[in-house]
Amino acid sequence: MTFLYLGLRMFRRNLALNVIVILQIIVALLLTNLLVGQYNLASDTLRQTAGFDADATYYYMPDATMDTTGERIEAAAALLAQHEGEYLAEQAVQVFLESTEGKDPMTYAYGPETIAHLDATLGAGVWLDEAQTAAGRIPCVTVGPYRVGEVLTFTLTDGKPLALDENGEPIARPGVQLEFEVVGTLQDTAYILTMNGMSNDPRLDEILELSIYEEEGTPILLCRQADLAQYRQQVDFSFDPADNALMYFPEGRTAASEALVASLSEHTWVTPLSEARARTQEERSKTIQTLLPVILALLFIGLVALVCLTLLNTMRSLRTYALYYICGMRWGDHRKICLGYVVCLLLGAAVLIGPVMYLLGEMLSLGELIFGWNNLAFSAGIVALAALVPLVGPALLMRRETPLDYLNESW
Amino acid sequence: MIELKNVDKTYNPGRPNAVYALRRVSLHIEEGEMVGVIGPSGAGKSTLLHVLGCIDRFDSGSYLLDGREVSQLGDREYSRLRNREIGIVLQDFGLIEEFSVLENVMTPLFFTPGMRGKARRKRALETLNQVGIGNLASRSVTALSGGQKQRVAIARALVNHPRLLLADEPTGALDQKTSAEIMALLHALSEQGHTLVVITHDPAVAAVCDRLYYIQDGTLRDGSAADMARPVVASPAPAQEAPPAAE
Ligand SMILES: Nc1ncnc2c1ncn2[C@@H]1O[C@H](COP(=O)(O)OP(=O)(O)OP(=O)(O)O)[C@@H](O)[C@H]1O
Ligand SMILES: [Mg+2]
Predict the structure, then answer these.
(1) pLDDT in tens, B111-146
(2) What is the torsional sign of CA A206, A211, A217, A223?
(3) Per-residue CA distances from A103 to A66, A107, A318 (Å)
């Protein structure tokens, strides 16, 4: 404690310069954080889809290839109909749930293959394949303000625009009231399988999408198509072949399956999951390759500044150290004061990083997308380690110095 | 209390610029005595004080402080002596300019184990009152007069209640009137039972001391008021010459 206090003295002596170094530390911290965050996000999509048979699973997007005539979609639909039974196609079917209070959740219903293979990023509870609920309740996994075990009541509707009666008043949609039970929750920044990709060379982050809950406060609800099937009469959410879908071949990759994919490719965009994974990996390396040099350069500059400043401060403090020595400090303990000083810098950075991150988050509406606390902790570890390097300078400087050298200089 | 026997101290030993600062110095100081050390400039007075104050080590000889051989002590115990047993007033005040008066006086207490913040302040304030500048506690030391600075330095030396007080030309930088005040303060401390060693050029200061030592070219002998009349600047001492035998 004493040495922390004496370090603080050293810190205050050069306040302006020290604040600059603190800002530098923060910038380095944020950038490291950004890099780690980007890396983790990309890794998350790869991890979630690792359970799929990447070779025999395809992602096709008739939606994205629609021409003005709709001919291509029709051709694709006809082809798929011809080969029914040879493949499984599953969509992230969007269904519409109305809430009596609060925001309506964004809801996706998945098929059994998708549920079985997807390794969702659970924060708590279990995934849909292990869900057990009381009879009459539909299990769901959520992103939002809900807790595991919570029972939610929503009205399932067709989601079409509200019709108006002759007085111009909206006519209530037909709907079924359903009880959902939350069996699991995802992290707020989780990737959600939405299959909304619109490009002919999609990466995984187009098939999966970052949860928007953090930003917009719209909850996300994931459930099984099978649990909703019985309500299809009342509310129409049938499988539409013109929607993007993941296509599985139960027999694996065969000559027949490849032939089907080849002919389907003539009408729509088809991407093997393996390609999407490869592109994601490539993108991940590219991010690192572009960010890492910048970050290293900044870290290096910050480190040099820190080394110089610590050295400068030590040199300016030599007489003070000598006086401490006379007052009973062991000469070697100046290192502890130096350490105290660096700790003050780090504490300063720690105190300031909160507000800075908050402001950045507000300004850029990045939310936790980039500034996850776990990433930050990791980055802080790196920066703290780097901050110990400047202690070497004074240690070297002081090796040959004795307190007597500084006692007879007046100020 | 203090017993020096044949203490030698050489700066830069073995090099062309070697300086024999202390040559076979022996002295004996009783508990409660007030002893003056006089001698020309460069004679080795400050060096002697540094050795006595456990600030600097010496080459050979023996230094018994309260019966303990100081040269045998390790770093930790050596520091403890400076912190608890010895108070030192330096030639140039030796205050830390960015600290306030109170903080300067508290400095030794930072290195005293078990001293907490509150107790530190209390003790420092008491000591400031003792030297008569309790009202200046929160001032910056840069804004003080020479006499006030010297009182702060004395308070810092006293704050841990050491029994031995060493002062290097405590009036050297002060005018006559302030010098007299500071001397009165030191004398009062001596009366209270502190053991004092005072280095001085000042006859008025020497006159207050119980006993004097005279040092020239690193050689110490008993001194008298008559020695004050000697020239202040030392005759240049040939550096390479071996230490002469003690007289
Ligand atoms: N750190 C040092 N390195 C080398 N020589 C030194 C050092 N300190 C003192 N000396 C030399 O040792 C001799 C004694 O110095 P000291 O400071 O003890 O003299 P002093 O009697 O206190 O003089 P003054 O009255 O001027 O303060 C001088 O010749 C001085 O130049
Ligand atoms: Mg001197």
Answers:
(1) 998 888 899 999 999 999 999 999 999 999 999 999
(2) positive
(3) 32, 12, 64
B2-229: what CATH class? alpha beta
Q: Across-strand partners of A94? A: A108
Of the ligands numbered here, which is closest to the C-alpha atom of A404?
1
Q: Which of B12, B47, B58, B88 to mutate to test the pocket of ligand 1 (most atoms within 8 A of CB)?
A: B47
Select the residue of A9, A327, A403 nearest B83 (Cβ to Cβ): A327
The pLDDT of residue A367: 47
Task: Return the residue in B107, B115, B144, B168 with the most chain A beta carbons within 10 A, the one to mutate for interface testing.
Answer: B107
Q: In this structure, which residue's CA is closest to atom 26 in ligand 1?
A: B41
pLDDT at residue B247 greater than cutoff 50: no
Query: And the tokens for B11?
Result: 């700066």
Residue B27 in tokens:
């002295």
Q: Which residue is listed with tokens 């910056």?
A: B140
DSSP E strand boundaries for B13-108: 19-29, 34-38, 60-65, 68-69, 86-89
Kindly tell me the sign of the dihedral angle through the C-alpha atoms of A139, A141, A147, A153: negative
Write the pLDDT tens digit of every residue in A155-186. Answer: 888 777 777 878 888 777 778 889 999 999 98
Tell me: the pLDDT tens digits for B217-237? 999 999 887 777 766 555 544
- Mark the ranges of chain A whose per-residue pLDDT is less than 50: 367-369, 410-411
Residue B61 confidence (pLDDT) above 50 = yes
Q: Residues of A near B (CB-CB distance < 8 A)?
A: 2, 5-6, 9, 13, 320, 323-332, 403-404, 407-411
Whether residue A7 contacts residue A340, with contact meaning beta carbons closer than 8 Å, is answered with yes
ipTM for the predicted complex comes to 0.90
Instruction: Identify whether the C-beta of residue B212 lies closer than 8 Å to the C-beta of residue B38.
Output: yes
Is A326–B88 a contact, with Cβ atoms under 8 angstroms apart? yes
Residues B4-25 have a mean pLDDT of: 91
Of the candidates A189, A95, A185, the residue with the CA atom closest to the CA atom of residue A140: A185
The neighbour count for residue B118, using CB atoms within 10 Å, is 8
Domain boundaries, chain B: 2-229
Q: Residue B158: pLDDT band by 50, 70, 90 thresholds? A: very high
Which of A353, A301, A348 is CA-nearest to residue A26?
A353
Residue type for A174, please?
P
For the cut 90, the answer to whether the pLDDT of residue B86 exceeds it is yes
At A396 the pLDDT is 80
Closest to A234 measured CA to CA, from A95, A133, A100, A137: A95
Q: Which residues contact A148 (CB under 8 A, 6 or more apart)?
A: A124, A125, A182, A183, A184, A185
Residue B198 CA, ligand 2 centroid: distance in Å:
11
Could you tell me the distance, in angstroms and rounded to a whole number, from the CA of residue A39 to the centre of ligand 1?
64
